[in-house]
Amino acid sequence: QVQLVESGGGLVQAGGSLRLSCAASGRTFISYAMAWFRQAPGKEREFVAAISWSGGSTYYADSVKGRFTISRDGAKNTVYLQMNSLKPEDTAVYYCAVGPRIIATPSKFRAGDTYNYWGQGTQVTVSS
After folding, report:
1. pLDDT digits (tens, 9 = 90+) for 78-88
2. 43-49: long-range contacts (C-beta < 8 A, 24 or more apart)?
């Protein structure tokens, strides 16, 4: 049984930081692309960041570029999302996802249907 468990969400003031973690179990995800998406109330799920299986390539939504950093620790089977300079509009449930080993194009990294497994989500609330 594949499981992805997100943690690290919470309530933070605007300008603050949080680090989200996504621990994978039931399968070794060292060699698979991983990503973070988010969904705010009343809005569709949107791409946040992705990282290739090797960690050599990363992709970000324009709205978070320069503020968020995605990274992975293969030994711990974990992917992280460091979020700095948080804004109220970052408030959402954040989900991690695992995709195939090879993703052909940057646009595919940003597409939700590329990913096969999803976590349950962790709430991030940024107060103004």
Report:
1. 999 999 999 99
2. 43/92, 45/95, 45/112, 47/109, 47/110, 47/111, 47/112, 48/81, 48/94, 49/81
